[in-house]
Amino acid sequence: MFKRLGWLIALFLLAPVTSAFGADKLDTGDTAWMIVSTALVMMMTPAGLALFYGGLSRYKNMLNTFAMTFVSYCLASVIWMLWGYTLSFGPSQGGFIGGLSHVFLGGIGVDSLTGTIPTFVFVLFQMTFAGITVALVLGAIVDRMKFSSWIVFAVLWLTVVYFPVCHWVWGGGWMGAMGALDFAGGTVVHINAGMAGLVLCLVLGKRIGYGKEAMFPSSISLTAIGAALLWFGWFGFNAGSELAADGVAASAFLVTNTSAAIAALTWMFAEWILDDKPTVLGLASGIVAGLVAITPAAGFVSLSGALIIGIGAGIIGYLSVAVLKQRLGFDDSLDAFGVHGMCGIWGALATGLFANPAISGSAGLFYGNPKQLWIQFISILATAAYSGIMTLILVYVTKAITGGIRVTEDDEVKGLDSSLHGERGFEII
Amino acid sequence: MKKIEAIIKPFKLDDVKEALNEVGIQGMTISEVKGYGRQKGHKEIYRGAEYVVDFIPKVKIEVVVDSDQAEKVVEKIMAAANTGKIGDGKIFVFEIEEAIRVRTGEKGSDAI
After folding, report:
1. So what's the ipTM on this one?
2. Is B43 on the interface with A (CB under 8 A)?
3. Fewest beta carbons within 10 Å, which of A34, A400, A410, B88?
């Protein structure tokens, strides 16, 4: 997303600069769009993701899934303001992490600008990304993790994993400096969350009865509504990552929608051919897979790139959850790794293939810049390795703090809604 | 007196009820039940995870009639609930020892 700074400089050099594009002047159009984008991305977590994940969890664990999603967003909202923003966007400390000059948002006022928008808007926009990233992780471990452990883990994970990785890519860190292209969070959000989910579910172990008893989703209807809200919010996520209301934002909007649509169709047809029926869950999953894959590429690829990225996402997503997971036998309950990790990796690589200089000046392999693919590969590897290793350490730290991370067998069988929250998601006679 | 218990496909309930009304049956008890016989269950696939659903929803009708009516009632139910396909259900006939109307204390045929 901070490619924009580069374009600003280019614009200064190449074209007669209009005052609206001055880097230190507020633009009301950009500001209005970014406020709306921020609200759109906010909705993705407690509405979109909560319904998407809640509908997929079992009827007895639906409220617990909602609770974990809501609490993730609340925790991220608070700690982002206290120390998250400064660790991500403070003055770079060797390219690894931001300095502490903006703890408690120190030094930022109503007149502070980031590009053409108030820094407060930028702070909030970025906060919503931290919120959804940590919430994405929980898809891997629903139905069995202690709520207290989730809270401790979420705070630790944001601080030790998300903030540094965010800094690497967008905050002036080494990955951005290396030239890695990540428009709206393929590495920072999706690969990061997918890897963390994978590690967490491997340490936590399978759900009781996994592979033996039927584990029906509580409501595919809610999951479908959740997918629709995610799709809607994703326009803020991707087109908003331009940080301006301009042509690149419009292009990002367009390719985001196209990729989601064709990925949904691809997943649906793959299922129809291989599993006999076109399911609503397949459509909903395909939408999310397509959105994930286009995220890093949104401001860099044109329509043709988006179509290929979407088709790839539909196939890779479907194979990851329906074939790969079943073969390997790990219990990534709602496929945080299968959808976000795998399609995030595909999207980050595809950005290195299809980045079209006509969109925002960056070229991928198919536009004569093979080096970009290598840079993308390094950024994927580094993010996955860092996220995986640090998550593993943090899981054990959490375990020590909360005395185990898994609920008792009794509670798990009874269901977490009742045993942890004392509530029920449905009243069915 | 006999009790006739019929387990049928849910969408056939209205047809059966009307057929029984035609032969003068004044009341019945129904319940939604689940089970399987030769029809077996079906499978559902969620993201590649295949679950077999053994128990299929059915409707159970219970009706108590005079012994001489029983055969006709059974025929009516059979005719109304029949689709010719596997899974149409079953009918069981029981001997009833006594029937009592709670409000008045009437017994036997008067109570049904």
Report:
1. 0.80
2. no
3. A410
